[in-house]
Amino acid sequence: xxxxxxxxxxxxxxxxxxxxxxxxxxxxxxxxxxxxxxxxxxxxxxxxxxxxxxxxxxxxxxxxxxxxxxxxxxxxxxxxxxxxxxxxxxxxxxxxxxxxxxxxxxxxxxxxxxxxxxxxxxxxxxxxxxxxxxxxxxxxxxxxxxxxxxxxxxxxxxxxxxxxxxxxxxxxxxxxxxxxxxxxxxxxxxxxxxxxxxxxxxxxxxxxxxxxxxxxxxxxxxxxxxxxxxxxxxxxxxxxxxxxxxxxxxxxxxxxxxxxxxxxxxxxxxxxxxxxxxxxxxxxxxxxxxxxxxxxxxxxxxxxxxxxxx
Length: 310
Fold this sequence. Notes:
There is one protein chain. The protein is mainly beta. The protein has one domain. It is 7% helix and 49% strand. The protein is built from 2 helices and 19 strands. The chain has helices spanning 72-82, 226-237, and strands spanning 14-18, 21-22, 27-32, 35-44, 47-59, 62-66, 89-96, 102-118, 121-122, 131-136, 139-144, 168-172, 181-184, 187-196, 205-212, 216-221, 247-254, 261-277, 289-302. Strands 1, 2, 3, 6, 7, 8, 10, 11, 14 and 15 form a 10-stranded antiparallel sheet that branches. Strands 9-13-16-19-18-17-12 form a 7-stranded antiparallel sheet. It has a two-stranded antiparallel ribbon with strand order 4-5. β14 (187-196) and β15 (205-212) form a beta hairpin. The longest helix is centred in the C-terminal third of the chain and has 12 residues, at 226-237.
């Protein structure tokens, strides 16, 4: 029987450092960040065969999925991006074997956040909640580490389990009953970038452009939707022009006992562009709900809750 001389490297052992500091967030998944060649092919005279060669090189985005607890540094980075105070970060991902010894190092430089996705907030959810974030580096360096390299070490935060996607509160100023919203669909904030190719540079320079805040869609029981439907009647059906047509609001992420706010996203210039009672089915036993969609001009992160931005 032939035995393998080398052990396989497990996919579950890795470590993330940003600007030399280990993140205290629980990292569920990391992928991407590898260089990719763009190939061109050219015709040569009357020959039917074409010559192929590498023209430019791009770098795929890194995709991170992490828990909010202990993610202060990542949240500060996201907060700055949303407010157009861009900061570029360097970091590295270290992959380890089954015994947690470092085996491979993946460094990235001058990275910008290009996408942040929050999970579906559902009062009936039973799973843990994670935020997905994509970052775009300008340059990457990969290398295999020699045997006996240091082990990776995880940092466990005492607040690791403070938030689940079932614990939230949606607020719209002037419509108090919006706190009874039972579900908000997943939403993604996107930071545009422009890739600038220079003569001597192999990798393009990355410059931030515009930022796009998404519409928010969700549902609320018809019992609590009177003011929401009145908002729809006044400013969509009747077309009344009034500054009150756009409101402010927030999404609060609550502790499991719902007694304190641990995290908040503030919403500015919120407008309603759709509201309707969901389909009704004869003899159905489910609660009758109203589905709505709202546009948001701007969002920002508020870390004054229990998590804080330390």
